């Protein structure tokens, strides 16, 4: 009953906010915000970052960069999201280091490669922990990683932005590591028996 009450209160607050905006003639603000975060604007942001130079990477089809045509298919957007997702968690890639600054962050990149399987294991343990205890962190991480995945294009800027997410990444990675250690100790106890 508490969850239903919370959802009801949130819906009332959002509804009241929208009603107030429409009453005062400011509903156009919502339309401007919606157009600001359209797929075309996200792709345009990525292409603009690419054109600034430095350590950049491309995730969209070539015509987006050459023709400034930001209309892409759903499949192309999904593939770009997956490429961007890989960059969020693992860039700068060890086989593509381009500058001395990227060498400095190399130990953290190696740690990301090592910790990612534990992160996934920690995410899978959410069923045991309970989704209510982790919902806020998961929503923040999902939306933050999604925006970085589709809009970011500079490795240095991406590295600084993904450090905001690092504490939350470590929460789930440590839960996965503890789960892995428990599994190893249970297996070793069975072998000794």
Structure report:
By secondary structure, this protein is an all-alpha fold. Helices cover about 75% and strands about 0% of the residues. The protein contains eleven helices and no strands. It starts with a helix and ends with a helix. The mean pLDDT is about 80.
Concise account of the structure shown:
This protein has 193 residues and is mostly helical. 77% of the residues lie in helices and 0% in strands. α7 crosses α11 (166-192).
Number of helices: 11
The percent range for helix content is: over 70%
What overall geometry do the principal axes of the alpha carbons give? flat
Task: Specify Rg, calculated over alpha carbons.
Answer: 21 Å
Structural class of the secondary structure composition? mainly alpha
| Count of beta strands | 0
End-to-end distance:
47 Å
Low-confidence residue ranges: none
Order of helices and strands: HHHHHHHHHHH
Give the DSSP E fraction (strand runs of 2 or more residues). under 5%
Sheet of most strands: none
Mean of residue pLDDT values: 82
Topology readout:
Layout: H1 2-23, H2 28-36, H3 39-50, H4 62-66, H5 74-90, H6 100-104, H7 106-124, H8 126-129, H9 131-151, H10 155-162, H11 166-192
Features:
about 75% helix, flat, 11 helices, mainly alpha, about 190 residues
């Amino acid at each position: 009953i508490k969850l239903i009450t919370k959802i009801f209160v949130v819906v009332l607050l959002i509804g009241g906010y929208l009603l107030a905006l429409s009453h005062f003639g400011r509903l156009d603000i919502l339309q401007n915000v919606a157009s600001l975060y359209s797929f075309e604007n996200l792709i345009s942001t990525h292409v603009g970052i690419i054109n600034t130079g430095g350590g950049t990477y491309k995730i969209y089809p070539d015509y987006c960069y050459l023709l400034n045509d930001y209309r892409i298919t759903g499949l192309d957007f999904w593939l770009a999201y997956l490429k961007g997702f890989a960059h969020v968690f693992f860039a700068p890639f060890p086989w593509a280091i381009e500058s001395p600054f990227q060498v400095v962050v190399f130990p953290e990149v190696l740690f990301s490669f090592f910790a990612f399987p534990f992160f996934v294991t920690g995410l899978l343990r959410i069923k045991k922990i309970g989704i209510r205890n982790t919902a806020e962190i998961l929503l923040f991480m999902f939306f933050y990683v999604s925006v970085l995945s589709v809009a970011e294009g500079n490795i240095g800027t991406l590295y600084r932005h993904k450090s905001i997410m690092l504490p939350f990444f470590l929460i789930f990675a440590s839960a996965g590591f503890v789960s892995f250690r428990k599994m190893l100790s249970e297996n070793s106890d069975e072998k000794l028996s």
